[in-house]
From TrEMBL:
Pfam families: DUF6268
Top-level taxon: Bacteria
Keywords from the UniProt entry: Signal
Descriptive protein name: DUF6268 domain-containing protein
Xref: InterPro entries: DUF6268 (IPR046235)
Signal peptide span: 1-20
Domain DUF6268 as annotated: residue spans: 170-331
The organism of origin for this protein: Mucilaginibacter aquatilis
Length: 335
C-alpha cells in the first residue's frame, strides 16, 4: 500500500466580534476544505492508489507454462490469463491528525489452458480447461499524520481480509507502516519507511521502502517507490499524460482440491513484473482512462495450503514472459 499526504496550514486574523469570529471560522473551513481537495486531487492524478474508485482489466497473451506438483513435472502448455479488479475507497471519519478509511475490492481471474502435453499417467484432460476464480476483500485503515524532528511522519495500521466464500474469511492479515519525510519541496519529495506485515503466508514480515519524486524539466516527473515501482511521467496536455516504467503486481486465488496428497484448501498466488509504456486521459472532470502495454515477467507462481508459509508450497508454475495489455477507468476523490 502507498500512502501520501500534502498539508497546507492557513492562518487568519480574527476580529473581536462574535459574529465576525463565526464568519471567519466558516470562511476558513471552506478555504481549507477547498485547498485540501485541490491538493488531494493533484496527488491522486499522480498516484492511482489515492483515487476514490477504479476498475482495471489485464489481458496477457499465451504464455508457455510448466507445472510441477511436489517437484514432479505434471504438464506443460500455454496459459492465457484475464484479470479484472475493482476498488472503492471510502473515508469513514477524520478528527484532528487522525483518519479512518475503508477499502472494498473484488477480483476476477480467468485462466485458459491449451496445447497441453501431460507427463503423468491418469492425468485429467486439461486441454481447453478454463478456471474462473472470484475473490472479494475488505481493508480498514487508521492513519495519523504528525511531525518528528521537524519532519512529517505518517503512522498507519490496517486489517485486511480476502475470501472467495460467503461464510468465512480465508486470508486475514495485519499491516503497520511508518513513513518519515526527509525532504519536501515543490520539486522534490523524499521519504523512507518500514512496512510490517503480519500474515501467516509471509516469509519476511518487515520490508523497508524508499520513495523519491522529482519534477524535471519539460513537465517530466520521476517517481521511485522501491521496491514496488519506477516510473517516468510526462505531461502532454493538461488532461493527457504518458508514462514509462516498471512495477510489481500480485494476485491471489483460492482452490478446493480432492486429490490425494494435495491439501484440500489451496492459496494460489503470483508475483509479476510489468514493464512498458502507458497513457492516462482525464475526462468529465473526475474520471481518468488509462491504457498500458508491455512485457509481463512472472517472478513467482505458487500454491500452498491456506494459512501456511508461501515457501511451503506444493505446486509451482514456471511461466515464460509474455505481452500484456491493460485498461482502466478510475475516479478522482469526491467524498
Amino acid at each position: 500500500m502507498k500512502i501520501y499526504n500534502n498539508y497546507i496550514l492557513l492562518f487568519f486574523i480574527l476580529t473581536n466580534s462574535a459574529f465576525a469570529q463565526s464568519q471567519a471560522d466558516a470562511y476558513r473551513k471552506r478555504m481549507m476544505d477547498s485547498i485540501k481537495n485541490v491538493y488531494l486531487i493533484e496527488a491522486a492524478i499522480r498516484n492511482p492508489a489515492l483515487r476514490q474508485a477504479s476498475i482495471t482489466t489485464d489481458v496477457t497473451s499465451g504464455s508457455n507454462i510448466e507445472n510441477f506438483v511436489h517437484g514432479n513435472k505434471i504438464f506443460d502448455g500455454t496459459m492465457q490469463v484475464l484479470r479484472t479488479s475493482a476498488l472503492f475507497n471510502v473515508p469513514v471519519h477524520q478528527w484532528g491528525k487522525n483518519s479512518i478509511s475503508a477499502t472494498f475490492s473484488a477480483f476476477q481471474q480467468r485462466f485458459h489452458l491449451s496445447n497441453i502435453t501431460p507427463y503423468q499417467p491418469n492425468l485429467p484432460d486439461l486441454e481447453g480447461k478454463v478456471f474462473n476464480k472470484f475473490t472479494v476483500g475488505f481493508t480498514g485503515t487508521f492513519l495519523r499524520v504528525d511531525s518528528l524532528f521537524g519532519h512529517q511522519v505518517v503512522y498507519s495500521a490496517s486489517i485486511s481480509g480476502v475470501t472467495s466464500r460467503a461464510s468465512s474469511i480465508q486470508k486475514l492479515s495485519y499491516l503497520g507502516a511508518v513513513i518519515f519525510s526527509l525532504k519536501q519541496t515543490p520539486k522534490v519529495r523524499t521519504s523512507v519507511g518500514l512496512f510490517i506485515n503480519i500474515d501467516p503466508s509471509i516469509n519476511v514480515p518487515v520490508v523497508p521502502f524508499f520513495t523519491y519524486w522529482r519534477k524535471l524539466n519539460n513537465d517530466l516527473e520521476l517517481n521511485v517507490n522501491l521496491p514496488q515501482q519506477l516510473t517516468l511521467r510526462k505531461g502532454i496536455s493538461p488532461k493527457l499524460w504518458a508514462t514509462l516504467g516498471t512495477s510489481l503486481s500480485g494476485s491471489i486465488a483460492f482452490f478446493r482440491h480432492n486429490q490425494p496428497g494435495i491439501p484440500q484448501d489451496g492459496n494460489f498466488s503470483t508475483i509479476d513484473l510489468k514493464t512498458g509504456p502507458g497513457i492516462e486521459y482525464r475526462f468529465a472532470k473526475k474520471f481518468i482512462f488509462g491504457l498500458n502495454a508491455g512485457f509481463l515477467t512472472n517472478l513467482q507462481s505458487r500454491e500452498f495450503e491456506v494459512n501456511s508459509k508461501a515457501n511451503d508450497y506444493f505446486l509451482r508454475n514456471k511461466v515464460n514472459p509474455s505481452f500484456f495489455g491493460s485498461f482502466s477507468v478510475s475516479v478522482l476523490p469526491f467524498l
